[in-house]
Design goal:
With 441 residues, this protein is of the alpha/beta class. It is built from 13 helices and 20 strands. Helix content is 30%, strand content 20%. Strands 9-7-5-2-10-1-11-15-19-20 form a 10-stranded mixed beta sheet, sandwiched between helices. Strands 14, 16, 17 and 18 form a 4-stranded mixed beta sheet that branches. It has a two-stranded antiparallel sheet with strand order 3-4. Helix 3 crosses helix 4, helix 3 packs parallel to helix 5 and helix 5 packs across helix 6. The chain starts with a strand and ends in an 8-residue tail after the last helix.
Length: 441
């Protein structure tokens, strides 16, 4: 059986939720490997819409198992609320949703610390969601975090929380905050709240490896996108986790030899949220038009996204870094009304044309996109499900992307619903989904 990683090829918000929901029909288990409740996946099924933040998108299919890995930071309040919302919409998670006992937990003091840091005058604003994600990962790397499995031993949990509260209180006081933290009250409330988590806790690595050995297939779901990866993204304007394909192995405890393929997801244009480099950003009327047609507003925060043209240097980098087998293009229909569509093929830096990405923030600021302008198709593509039915100029646009990247475009999304999807025949992804593709080498 095939095991497939789905990774964002841009700065996140590429439509991975719909893609994972669509592909989940071919797999037994969907496992999330990074991020927290700062990432949202919006999925439309008929007239119903679901917004998932922590729960893997596969949960919407009643016969699938969903796993939250150790690479995810879990806010118990957010997870409980999400489960309750799903239950109210008729989606039961009982016996189908599991959480790694090694996943680190987010507490109220993480949100306090993040808010203080983001608003501090001595630090550049990153544009975080202030949900405590970064500080929780800082505690994890600093070896002072509290993991989901710690809630099963009350005395040990209280001790760990007491030490964490003392440290955070000292930090808040040093920053001039008047907030007072009560360790005993927080411990009592956290233990009460986390009761719902206990039946879900598993050794995710052992579970997944046993299931794969038994012949069941796994779809690995990433959050955010490659350019937000803490190591390989546009640092420091990045998230705090490993958003690339490699994060699937570390974030779930699965050996790379178990991975059959990697697919990247990219919009037909580019967006990003928050501060940071964005060479192809379009600040004029065209950018506003894309934003409105694409409904480019965060599913979790409601923040408007910065919009711009497709950036091929970013996609080349992402394809190489993740070892992509194929590319999935989403929101093609957003471009339907444009007469012309610029595509960035290279960057110009200091008078020289370069295909590689800058490293330093100052170098990013100097990068100027080199555009190739393609004709628009001026015809509706929304809802088309056969590649041959796309307007010729739309097919030319997709072929141009494929040729420039040396990468197959295997699926094209023409709308938010499951059915609004084109699956191209004869691709490596199609073979992976059929379980007939040879293993990766």
């Amino acid at each position: 059986m095939s095991n497939l990683i789905v990774v964002g090829a841009q700065w996140g918000d590429e439509g991975k939720g719909k893609v994972v929901d669509f592909l989940a029909g071919h797999f037994d288990i969907v496992a999330r490997y990074n991020g927290g409740n700062n990432a949202g996946h919006t999925i439309a099924i008929g007239s119903r819409q679901f917004v998932l933040q922590l729960v893997p998108s596969g949960i919407l299919r009643p016969d699938k198992v969903a796993v939250i890995g150790n690479g995810v930071v879990v806010d118990p309040v957010a997870l409980r609320n999400e489960i309750e919302t799903l239950e109210q919409k008729g989606i039961s998670t009982a016996g189908r949703l599991f959480v790694s006992n090694r996943a680190h937990l987010i507490f109220p003091y993480h949100r306090l610390v993040e808010t203080e840091l983001e608003n501090s005058p001595w630090r550049s604003k990153i544009g975080t969601t202030a949900r405590g994600i970064g500080p929780a990962y800082e505690d994890k790397i600093g070896r002072r975090g509290i993991r989901a499995g710690d809630i099963t031993e009350e005395a040990e949990f209280r001790c760990l929380l007491e030490m964490a509260v003392q440290e955070k209180q000292a930090l808040l006081r040093a920053w001039g905050s008047k907030v007072l933290l009560d360790a005993a009250a927080l411990a009592a409330e956290s233990l009460r709240l986390c009761e719902f988590l206990k039946p879900m806790l598993i050794d995710a690595s052992a579970y997944l490896q046993a299931e794969m050995k038994a012949g069941r297939s796994v779809l690995f779901e990433g959050a955010q996108g490659t350019m937000l990866d803490v190591d390989h993204g546009t640092y420091p304007y990045v998230t705090s986790s490993s958003a690339t394909a490699g994060g699937a192995c570390t974030g779930l405890g699965v050996p790379p030899t178990r991975i059959s393929g990697v697919v990247g997801v990219s919009k037909a244009y580019t967006t990003r949220v928050g501060a940071g480099p964005f060479p192809t950003e379009e600040n004029g009327a065209a950018g506003d038009r894309i934003r409105e047609r694409g409904r480019e507003f965060g599913s979790v925060t409601g923040r408007s996204r910065r919009c711009g043209w497709l950036d091929l240097p970013v996609l080349r980098y992402s394809a190489a870094l993740n070892g992509l087998d194929s590319l999935i293009i989403t929101k093609l229909d957003v471009l339907d009304e444009l007469d012309e569509i610029p595509v960035c093929t290279d960057y110009e830096c200091d008078g020289a044309v370069r295909k590689e990405l800058p490293v330093r923030s100052s170098a990013w600021e100097q990068a100027r996109p080199v555009y190739r302008t393609l004709p628009g198709w001026r015809q509706p593509t929304a809802g088309i499900t056969r590649y041959e039915e796309l307007p010729p100029a739309a097919r030319d646009y997709l072929e141009f992307i494929s040729n420039q990247l040396g990468l197959e475009v295997s699926i094209v999304s023409t709308g938010p619903e499951r059915t609004q999807t084109i699956v191209r025949g004869g691709t490596r992804l199609e073979k992976l989904l059929a379980g007939s593709s040879p293993p990766r080498t």
